[in-house]
Specification:
Layout lengths: L9 H12 L6 E5 L6 H13 L4 E2 L6 E2 L5 H7 L6 E4 L9 H11 L9 E5 L7 H12 L5 E7 L7 H4 L4 E3 L5 H9 L6 H10 L4 H10 L2 H16 L3 H11 L9 H27 L11 H11 L3 H17 L4 H11 L1
Parallel strand pairs: 1-6, 1-7, 4-5, 5-6
Antiparallel strand pairs: 2-3
Amino acid sequence: MPFRDVVGHRAVISRIAQAVAGDSLPPSVLLTGPGGVGKRLVAGAIAQALNCGAPRRDASGPAVDACGSCSACRRIAGGAYPDVLVLAPGEGGSITVDQVRVAIEQVGYRPFEGRRRVIVVDDADLLVPAAQNALLKTLEEPPPRSQFVLVTARPDMLLDTVRSRCPRLRLGHLGSDDVAGILLRRPGIDERAARSAAAAAGGSAGRALQLASSGHEGTREAAIGLLRSVSAARDTRARLAGAKDFAAGRGSRRAPAADRRELRERLQMLASLLRDIAAVAAGAAVPLANADLDGALRDLAGAWGGARGPRAFAAVYEALDAVERNVGPKVVADWVACRL
């Protein structure tokens, strides 16, 4: 996908395109940002721009973009170009030192066909420490005509020595309209579902697609149920009873990662509902992500308006951070129910 087709992030993409045009893109870069905002697409666009057979110059400024249709662009997009290698976690959930050694060996050769050998390290935070250490010298002294792009939503998981060798390019959250536009390009997603999922996804197109594709009524019902049970609870035991219904996968045999993913979605929906409830309580004339629940939102506004709303909102985001740190779903659900 060429730079021009990537949704959002225009300022960062413009800087990258100008650096490619001026042959000044650092040979090792760290592409960071929240999950589901297009980091992998930008990495692919860099690989295409560096190897496109018919690059386009921007008439309005010093920038270059791939054509998107030449043989090189098509094969890069399809993962079949000899000078672009993508390292990704294997079955064990990590990127091994052997994978890195293969990449280092390949990047030491001249490009087979294109102008640059590009190594994209996807989910770079999953590089095992030995693999990160093996990569250090190459990042510090990359071979001529090579380009490393490390992609991660968790740069804090990389060694300081790796981060220090890679200038950071940070992508932010997407706007709700941009996310909805991405969803509307997918078959089977209507405008109402797209806008509802986009509003609940916190600026992540990937997360919104999951919500819209799977349907999020169950997620929303769980979030509303927690708000109702906590607002009616008279003691901690009653709050924990509400948390039991809210915790994803409680008592199931699913993988822990699936439980954490579902709890993350429920917490994000909880944040979306609290945002709408705050708007209703304040009488603000703003679009609501859950406008179809107007009656329920008004019922909840009495209990969750005022100063309690911001405190609850902060608790939800602390809980989301705990999920990212792999705290167990039961512990997180119990904690957030007691903090709301």
